[in-house]
Amino acid sequence: MNKKYSFVIVAITAATLISSCVSRGNNPGWEYAPDMYYSKGYEAYNQGDSNVVNPYGMNMREPVAGTVAYGKLDYKYPFENNGEGYEKAGELLKMPEGVSLEDGRAAYMYGIYCSPCHGNNGNNDGPVFKRVSTLKPAWKGYSDAAVMNLADGKIYHTLTYGKNNMGSHASVLTPSDRWKLVKYVKFLGSQNGAVATVAQDSTSTTK
Length: 207
Prior knowledge:
By secondary structure, the chain is mainly alpha-helical. It has helices at 2-22, 83-92, 105-113, 115-118, 127-131, 145-148, 152-161, 175-206.
């Protein structure tokens, strides 16, 4: 009797091992209610090979060639990321009318994305420049003539693509925010220039 039970136990164990081996590899085994895991509907971000209408089995439709999404017209940027595009942007790209600093949006965005390097007042004394000695700015501050005389389009181009040590900010700044920052940079430069002029005049007066 013991031999009979031993044989049954060995047979069950062998069957279990064989079945476990079969479910390995590309065979996922049995699933309970797969419809609960995999939607049969054509959801936008669900890649389904069963969709034979769109290319590559995609559920999202590709936009019509030559079209721009509603509300995204100002994202269309005509200048390439090279020296020629930089010069063309300075020559042809002009700040739109109505760009204002009154809502505080520019100062807010500047504090997030610009001040860590350029400092709160645009003097290149932010914590990043203080800690990383290898970063050498091309100008002392926004009040430098090189910045104050720089075409607005070139600053916008730099925010879009990046330049030298500065990377692109196009993914975090909308086109309208970029123009606000361009205006804010010039504002900080004029403020610092005015402060420097007053300090110089007072020094010469005391002498």
